[in-house]
Write a structure and sequence with these properties.
Structural class: alpha+beta
CATH superfamily of the largest domain: Zn peptidases
Number of domains: 2
Radius of gyration: 24 Å
Number of strands: 18
Strand order of the largest sheet: 1-2-8-3-9-16-10-15
Strand content: 15-25%
Distance between the termini: 32 Å
CATH architecture of the largest domain: 3-Layer(aba) Sandwich
Largest sheet: 8 strands, mixed
Shape: globular
Helix content: 25-40%
Length: 409
C-alpha cells in the first residue's frame, strides 16, 4: 500500500491543471513537464519504447511481452491534467482505518467531509483514505488512474507474475477541457483495444458516453433610449431569455439522470444590444441527440424571423460521440473487464457515463476504449477523496485483465 500512497501524494502535489483559454498543446507547460518526468520514471521501472510526443503532449511506453504466444497488444490510458478548481499547494491528508464519522478537512475554516452530506462515505469504513485539506481539489482525477497503471506495470516488470502480451500505456493532457484525445496517435499506440482508468467508485465499468455538441448563440439587438423605444428597441437580453424559454425546461442537468439528455447554458453575457449564450447539448441516444441539435437550430430560425431587425447567429459543433455505439459491435474489452473484476470478487457496475472521456474520441479513432474505476469520489472539488484500498483493486483489475487476455489467446 505504501508505494502507491507515496507515488500518488508525490504526483498530486505537482500542479498540472489545464487551461481552456490557452491555444497551445498541451494547454499548460506544466503538463508537458510532467510528461517528461513520467518518461524518466517509466524508463526507470523498465518500460521500453518510452517517448513523449511534443505535438500532442502524450507520453507512451510499452511493457514487452514475455510469452511466445500470439497475443494482441492492449493498452491503458490516463490523463495528466486536473480540473478547473484550485490546484496549487495541494496538501493531501491521510485517514487510516476510517471509522465512518466526520473528517475535519480544515479546522480553521470549518470545512468537514461528512457522511451526512456524502452518504457514500459509509462504504469506506475501515479503508485508508486520502483527502484534501479543504482548500484545493485532490487530483485523484486522474492521478489515481495514472498511479494504478504505473504500479501495475511495475509489478509486471519486476515480479513477472504471469505471461502477457505487449501492453501499452499512455498518459496525456487536457482531458478536463475536452481536447486531450483530439491528437491521440492511434497508430503509435497500436492496440486491439484499451481502457481509460478514469472512473470513480469500485466496480465502475463504463462503455457508453454522451453524444455531445457545443452551441454558441450571438444576438445583436437594437439599443435606443428607453424613452423613445416603442417599436424600435430589440433587447438582446430579453431575446436570449425567450430563446432559453423555448427549450424544454425539464431537459436540464438538474432534472435528468441515467441516459436522459439535456441542454445546459454554461455562460451568458448580455447587454441590450449584444448577448452571447453558450450551451452544451448532450444525449446518449444518437437520434435524440440529432433532434436536440435540430431543435436549437429551429428556435434560432424562428426568432430570427420574429425579430427581423435583430441578428441572431448560431455556431454549432460536435464535441464527441457515444463510444457505446462502436463498442457494442465488439464487446471483448467489456467482457474481459467484467470477468477480471468477478475473479477479484468485485461486482461490475455498468452504467453510462453522464459526461465524456478520452475513450470516446479514442474509440472513434479506431481503438475501443471503455473506462475503469479508480477508487476516488467527489472529483473536481474540495471534498474529493481516494480510497487507497479500492485504488489498489483498480491496480489488481488492470493486472487481471492482462493475465486473462493472454490466457485466452
Amino acid at each position: 500500500m505504501q508505494p502507491f500512497i507515496d507515488r500518488f501524494i508525490r504526483y498530486v502535489k505537482i500542479d498540472t491543471r489545464s487551461d481552456a483559454n490557452s491555444s497551445t498543446v498541451p494547454s499548460t507547460k506544466a503538463q508537458l513537464d510532467f510528461a517528461y518526468m513520467l518518461k524518466d520514471e517509466l524508463k526507470a521501472i523498465g518500460c521500453s519504447d518510452v517517448f513523449v510526443n511534443d505535438d500532442n503532449g502524450f507520453v507512451m511506453a510499452t511493457i514487452a511481452k514475455n510469452t511466445t504466444k500470439d497475443v494482441e497488444a492492449i493498452g491503458f490510458i490516463a490523463h495528466i491534467d486536473t480540473a478547473d478548481f484550485e490546484s496549487k499547494n495541494i496538501q493531501p491528508q491521510l485517514v487510516t482505518n476510517y471509522d465512518g464519522s466526520d473528517i475535519i478537512l480544515n479546522k480553521k475554516q470549518n470545512i468537514v467531509l461528512s457522511p451526512n452530506q456524502f452518504p457514500n462515505l459509509k462504504n469506506y469504513i475501515g479503508h485508508t483514505l486520502i483527502t484534501t485539506d479543504g482548500t484545493t481539489l485532490l487530483g485523484a482525477d486522474n492521478k489515481a488512474g495514472m498511479v494504478a497503471i504505473i504500479e501495475a506495470m511495475k509489478e509486471l516488470i519486476e515480479n513477472k507474475p504471469f505471461e502477457h502480451g505487449d501492453i501499452r500505456i499512455a498518459f496525456g493532457p487536457d482531458e478536463e477541457i475536452g481536447r486531450g484525445a483530439n491528437l491521440f496517435d492511434v497508430d503509435a499506440f497500436n492496440t486491439v483495444f484499451a481502457y481509460t482508468v478514469d472512473g470513480s467508485f469500485k466496480g465502475q465499468l463504463e462503455y457508453e458516453s454522451f453524444n455531445a455538441a457545443a452551441a454558441t448563440i450571438t444576438i445583436k439587438g437594437v439599443s435606443v433610449h428607453p424613452g423613445t423605444a416603442k417599436d424600435k428597441m430589440i433587447n438582446a437580453i430579453k431575446v436570449a431569455m425567450e430563446l432559453d424559454g423555448m427549450l424544454p425546461q425539464d431537459a436540464v442537468p438538474e432534472k435528468t439522470e441515467k441516459r436522459e439528455g439535456f441542454f445546459l447554458c454554461t455562460q451568458f453575457d448580455g447587454t441590450i444590444e449584444d448577448a452571447t449564450m453558450h450551451y452544451i447539448i448532450r444525449d446518449h441516444d444518437k437520434e435524440l441527440f440529432l433532434a436536440k441539435k435540430a431543435l436549437i437550430e429551429e428556435i434560432v430560425s424562428t426568432l430570427s424571423n420574429k425579430y427581423e431587425k435583430a441578428t441572431i447567429t448560431l455556431e454549432l459543433s460536435d464535441s464527441y460521440y457515444n463510444m457505446g455505439d462502436v463498442i457494442k459491435k465488439d464487446m471483448r474489452s467489456v467482457e474481459l473487464a467484467k470477468e477480471a473484476m468477478q475473479q477479484l470478487d468485485i461486482t461490475p457496475i455498468i452504467e453510462p457515463i453522464r459526461g465524456g472521456t478520452d475513450g470516446s474520441k479514442i474509440t472513434y479513432k479506431g481503438i475501443p476504449t471503455p473506462n475503469l474505476f479508480t477508487g476516488g469520489e467527489n472529483f473536481h472539488g474540495k471534498f474529493e477523496f481516494l480510497s487507497v484500498n479500492d485504488a489498489l483493486l483498480a491496480k489488481q483489475t488492470i493486472l487481471k485483465i492482462c493475465q486473462l487476455h493472454a490466457s485466452k489467446s
